[in-house]
Design a protein that fits this description.
This protein has helices at about 10-30, 40-45, 60-65, 70-85, 95-110, 130-135, 145-155, 165, 175-180, 200-210, 230-240, 255-260, 270-280, 290-300, 305-310, 325-340, 340-360, 365-375, and strands at about 5-10, 35, 50, 90-95, 115, 140, 155-160, 190-195, 220-225, 250, 265, 280-285, 320. With about 375 residues, it is α/β, with parallel strands linked by helices. It folds into two domains: about 5-160 and about 360-375, Glycogen Phosphorylase B (Rossmann fold); about 175-360, Glycogen Phosphorylase B (Rossmann fold). The strands form two sheets. A seven-stranded parallel sheet has the order 3-2-1-4-5-6-7, sandwiched between helices. A six-stranded parallel sheet has the order 10-9-8-11-12-13, with helices on both faces.
Length: about 375
């Protein structure tokens, strides 16, 4: 029988992770209907999106508050949809601010719920683990250390591996990449990833462009990644105002850029775990609005912000946070790593361990198996 599955992936990373599963699931179950909230990646596999996806890409307490009327409208629409024609399964992908409420809503309506990529309850809002236990039928988690928490509290859950193991594919070697983007392979390549949201670009790109001025263009190539989700107008205006030695803008081949650069500076987010998986030494930078940062400090219970450092439970790569984020500090950290062969090698060795841990399973297969089992009533192997 055909099944109807409601998905909610509110960010670019969630759309990418969910599209992996949809690609596999639609091969197995081409007659099943997949709809809800998702981006272009999911839509490639027949997914029907109910809202403009770009409206959901907001981050931080204050930023979400400014868009609260939109989110209330979305929640009301989802409730009406579930009442009129309930799906056979709800799959919630990360995005806990809205998804935790949708999980409760679906659970109250007796609609089965799978939470794929659990909220980072171990960092803040620990009570979310109890809400997941109450309001979900299963949790598919992607960070191996989370297993101890789910076991402790008796949450039905499975470790499914990390999506980046399937998402990251390197198409060009360094020579091919250099030829395509007209880069000098004899120079040291410094790469900067300012983020995938316009507000991140406004904060971080000017600082990164200022950082570049501290390095000799005769000895270095400067590469800056531009995400497709970022406004061309905003990005271009910041570049024009900076008047730097022209950096090379990489708006495709992002994984190749991460792979072939000698050192990277990465704005905190999904790109940090991607970079870590690829294995290039890097620095994590995090800066948000003052209000969001002060509010976050009151609740966040961990000392580190970078997932590579959290997963391995050690400071694998340097972190610069909020007031520490400026061109002088970033350039100093970069030079310390570049000029220390032992530190550079240690970072690479640690990142190699992370690669082995996160690449141990196929997410698309594991999550598709769980979805099929939830919808056919077969038993699941899980953490009890």
């Amino acid at each position: 029988m055909s099944k109807r599955i409601f998905w909610l992936a509110g960010e670019n990373s969630g759309d990418l992770h969910a599209s992996l599963v949809l690609q596999e699931l639609t091969k197995r179950q081409p007659d099943w209907q997949n709809y809800g909230i998702g981006g272009l990646g999911m839509q490639l596999y027949g997914f029907h999106s109910l809202f403009p996806f770009a409206r959901f890409s907001v981050m931080g307490f204050w930023e979400v508050l400014k868009h609260i009327s939109f989110f209330l409208k979305v929640e009301k629409s989802i409730r009406n949809s579930f009442l009129k024609n309930p799906p056979d399964l709800v799959v919630l992908v990360d995005y806990p601010g809205l998804n935790m409420r949708i999980a409760k809503m679906a659970s109250n309506m007796k609609i089965p719920v799978l939470y794929f990529i659990s909220p980072q309850f171990w960092a803040w809002k620990y009570n979310r683990i109890f809400k997941m236990k109450k309001n979900t039928n299963h949790v598919a988690f992607i960070l191996p250390f989370e297993e101890k928490y789910f076991k402790k509290h008796g949450v039905k859950a499975s470790y499914v591996g990390h999506p980046i193991a399937e998402e990251i594919k390197i198409k060009f070697d360094k020579k091919q990449f250099a030829e395509k983007h007209e880069l000098d392979v004899n120079k040291t390549w410094l790469g900067f990833l300012p983020g995938s949201r316009d507000n991140e670009i406004k904060k971080m790109l000017p600082i990164y462009l200022q950082t570049i001025k501290d390095f000799d263009p005769e000895k270095h190539e400067f590469l800056i990644s531009k995400a497709n989700s970022v406004s061309d107008k905003i990005f271009s205006k910041i570049l024009q105002n900076a008047k730097n030695p022209n950096p090379v803008i990489i708006d495709s081949d992002r994984y190749e850029m991460m792979k072939h650069c000698d050192l990277l500076v990465v704005t905190s987010g999904t790109a940090t775990i991607e970079t870590a998986f690829i294995g290039t030494p890097f620095i994590i930078v995090y800066k948000t609005s003052k209000i969001s940062y002060q509010l976050g400090k009151r609740f966040i219970k961990i000392d580190r912000i970078g997932l590579p450092n959290i997963v391995l439970d050690k400071c694998v790569v340097p972190e610069l946070i909020q007031s520490e984020v400026n061109a002088v500090n970033i350039a100093e950290k970069m030079k310390n790593i570049l000029h220390s062969e032992s530190e550079y090698k240690q970072i690479m060795d640690d990142l190699r361990k992370l690669h082995e841990i996160l690449g141990s399973k196929s997410v698309s297969n594991e999550v598709s198996n769980i979805i099929e089992e939830l919808l056919t009533g077969n038993s699941l192997e899980m953490i009890e």
